[in-house]
Amino acid sequence: MTRSPRMLPVNLPAPTAPPAASDAGAATVPGSRFWLCLVAALLAAAWFAGTALAQEGVVKDEEEEIPPPKNLTLRTADNVVLHCTYYGSIEGPKAAPVIIIHGWGGQRLAYDGLALQLQEAGHAVIVPDLRGHGGSKIRRHLEATKDEDLDPERFGQRDMEAMYVFDLEAVKWFLYKENNAGKLNLDALCVIGADEGTVIALNWINYDWSQEISPYESHKSAHWAKACVLISPHSNCKGLATTQPLRNPVIQTGMNMLIVVGEKDRSSLGIAARMNSSLERLRARRPKTDPNLFFLRMPTTLQGVDLLGKPGLNLGAKIRGFINLRLMQKMDEYFPWRERQASIPSWFNVQ
Question: 147 is in which domain, residue-wise?
Answer without folding.
Answer: 35-55+66-350
